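tool_call: predict_structure(chain=1)
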Amino acid sequence: MGGDNRVIMADPCSVEDEEQMVSTAKVVKAAGAQGLLIEVHPNPDVAKCDGPQSLTFQNFDLLMDQVKALNSVRGMPVPA
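tool_result:
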């Protein structure tokens, strides 16, 4: 993905669960997306909306560690 194009993945409603959300996020980051929009909830099972594709705070932190590693390998800025 070159030039001035920016690619952001929005939390897709097509995923069925948290595991698919994490997998999808890693794939689009590895492909070069500059950003991820992910829903996070302390208890996705009781979320009033989008619970199945929401991440817990702990799993969000784990995903961000993996995103930082992917960014590092791709030579992209690493979020703080």
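agent: The chain has two helices and two strands. Proceeding to next step.
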